[in-house]
Amino acid sequence: MVTLKDVARSVNLSVTQVSRALNDHSDVNEETRRRVKDAASSLGYEPNISARKLVSGRSGIVALVEQKYPGFTSDFLFFEIVAGLSAEFSRRGMQFVLHVAEADEDIIAVYQKLVGIGALDGFVITKPMVNDPRIAFLASRKIPFVVHGRMPSHTNYPHFDIDNEFVAVDAVKRLTDLGHRRIGLINGIAHFTYSRARLEGYRKVLAEAGIPFNETLVRNGAMTEELGYQSALDMMGQPDPPTALFCSNVSIAQGAYRALASLGLSIPGDVSVIAHDDALPNTEPAEFSPPLSVTHSPLSRSWPPLAEFLTGAIAHRPLAEIQEVARHEFIERSSTAPLKVRASAQG
Question: How many other CB atoms sit within 10 Å of the CB of residue 189?
Answer without folding.
Answer: 15
